[in-house]
Design brief:
The protein has about 110 residues and is α+β, with helices and mostly antiparallel strands. It contains three helices and four strands. Strands 2-3-1-4 form a four-stranded antiparallel beta sheet. This is Antibiotic biosynthesis monooxygenase.
């Protein structure tokens, strides 16, 4: 599968940047992550996300939302709150979340 970046979103929009440190492949993580991907895609105003993880356990996920209301809908989503609580207890050594408003966006794709 060729990776694809989220592109072509007209600003302004919002990002939730989740950075974390966790062991590689903890039990139950992949299933929960897949379930969360399906759930967030149902949130009106969700625009997409990109993720990367190093072999050493540092991960970054950037999720894009049209407005703060859609981002808050995801933050308050019951299954998401349950997954976050479980992750704090069982998976993540540490994490941080950064919320930002995007004023300008551009990119490049080789033809």
């Amino acid at each position: 599968m060729t990776p694809k970046l989220v592109a072509g979103i007209e600003p302004p929009y919002y990002t939730a940047v989740f950075t974390s440190i966790r062991p590689d492949a903890p039990e139950g993580y992949a299933e929960t992550a897949s379930r969360m991907r399906r759930s967030v895609e149902e949130i009106p105003g969700y625009l997409g996300h990109e993720s990367a993880r190093t072999p050493g356990g540092i991960g970054i996920t950037v999720a894009y939302f049209r407005d703060l209301e859609s981002l808050d809908a995801w933050r308050l989503h019951t299954a998401h709150q349950e997954a976050k609580a479980y992750g704090r207890e069982h998976w993540y050594d540490s994490y941080s979340v950064h919320i930002g408003r995007v004023e300008r966006s551009y990119g490049h794709e080789r033809a």
